[in-house]
Amino acid sequence: MKVIEGLYYSKEHEWVKVDGEKAYLGITDYAQQAMGDIVYVELPETGTELAIGEALGVVESVKAASDIYTPLSGTVVDINTSLEDSPEEINNDPYESWIAAFKMSDAGELDNLMDAEDYKDFLEEE
Amino acid sequence: MKRTSLYEKHLKHGGKMIDFFGWCLPLQYTSIIEEHRIVREGAGLFDVSHMGEITVEGTNAGEYINRMITNDISKKEIGQATYSPMCNERGGIIDDLIVYRIDQHKYMLVVNASNTSKDFEWLKQNEIPGVKVVNESDNYTQLALQGPKSKLIIEKLTSFDLGRLKYYRYVFTCLAGFKALISRTGYTGESGYEIYVDNQYAKKLWDAVMEAGEEFSLVPVGLGARDTLRMEAALPLYGRELNEEISPLESGLHRFVCLEKGEFAGRDALIRESENGTKRKLIGFEMKDKAIPRNEYKVLKDNKEIGFVTSGGYSPTLDKSLGMALVKNSGINIGDSIKIRIRKKEHNAKVTGLPFYKRNKK
């Protein structure tokens, strides 16, 4: 199970990559493996304001649809439209396949997330 | 959770085990899409030992079964298999099953895992003199070898001339040295076989089939691909297209309902339904918008709700999102535009014929 240094991780198996005020969000290697073949991603609309825990989008595998809840609050400023045609990219490269980019409303919320080491430990407990 | 005799084999192959109606079975080994494609192009091996086997024996066995199911087995010979719904008095489907005529006065019913105890109780309740119904589900292992290359694999393991085995026929023969029932049936839309053996031979037979299949790139296939394969072939699944509130006439199983054969459970209701026309019917549809339909999603036409999705999802063979739906049987035809309500949005779809996929018969 791949875990990358320098990213933030949520207990719901999402990763967050911070780039200035922007935060990119995707699902982890563990999440994509658990879901299996991903065949559809429902992206949010840019401009959507979300609070922590709100549904950002839906990732669907052959077997089931899984809601993706945002671990950060903010406004969606960008979405990865390439996933509309190639949702399987999440399986192939989960850490490059960001789903949405946020303008964070409170960077302090990052403190509630795990770093790579903590996430690895968390995975071992799962 | 109950385990089949092949549980260790699934773990060895890296199976992702899930709880399927109380059975611990593999959802997939590598990938549902990959396993699906291999069955369409080569061959795949499934452990379907969770299926139930109920034997019916006695001088009145044939007559009794014919009164319990909707299809007519009265003219079936030893060596034949028959698919049939089994209905309640209201014409709702208790289960769909395969009847094997084993002997002059002996039959084996193969039923869905989720329904085995219910079916057995229903059959016992309706038992008549001269009939003995026994639940033998725990004694058998069932393998399904499916795909265009399955014949080449089985041929290596038996001296029986498989060319003689027609669709929905079976034979008791020696397979890899074990006594087995080999049936030309399946649930994938491909050619293939279902094989029944005593549990004690399960592991050895699994290994023998896997080994014989190596040169044909045989792989084990899980329940995930079993579902996508059967959906493309529009084979109904109990609990989705079929349940006790749905009649076989509604779910498109007309040709397995023989109203003229005489008395059987559900006949009066089905005759009435046949005369008055069914209230609902099963349709196929294809998504026009990018979205995945799933069971229980609502179907709309001209802004009115007309029914619900029974099965839906991504079709690996056709690379489209497809589904089947049970809808009001009035004014709905192939080619019509409909909408599927997915979460909060309504997505465009088009009514299609069924099945979605049909194999090329050489």
Describe it.
The complex is a heterodimer of chains A (126) and B (362). With 126 residues, chain A is of the alpha+beta class. Chain A contains four helices and nine strands; from the N terminus they run E-E-E-H-E-E-E-E-E-H-H-E-H. In chain A, strands 1-2-3-9-8-5 form a six-stranded antiparallel beta sheet. In chain A, strands 4-6-7 form a three-stranded antiparallel beta sheet. In chain A, a hairpin with a 3-residue loop joins strand 6 (55-61) and strand 7 (65-69). The mean pLDDT of chain A is 96. Among the domains of chain B are: 2-48 and 139-232, 2-Layer Sandwich (Gyrase A, domain 2); 279-352, Elongation Factor Tu (Ef-tu), domain 3. Helix content of chain B is 20%, strand content 35%. Chain B has helices at residues 7-12, 32-41, 61-68, 116-125, 150-155, 202-213, 223-232, 267-276; strands at residues 2-3, 16-20, 23-28, 44-47, 52-57, 81-87, 93-103, 106-111, 132-135, 140-146, 170-175, 178-183, 192-198, 219-220, 280-287, 298-301, 304-315, 320-328, 337-342, 345-352. In chain B, strands 11-12-13-10-4-14 form a six-stranded mixed beta sheet, sandwiched between helices. In chain B, strands 15-18-17-16-19-20 form a six-stranded antiparallel barrel. Chain B has a five-stranded antiparallel beta sheet with strand order 6-7-8-5-9, covered by helices on one side. Chain B starts with a strand and ends in a 10-residue tail after the last strand. The mean pLDDT of chain B is 97. Classes of the chains: A alpha+beta (126), B alpha+beta (362). The A-B interface holds A 36-37, 39-40, 42, 58, 60-63, 65, 84 and B 16, 27-28, 31-34, 224, 228, 290-292, 294, 313-314, 316, 321, 343.
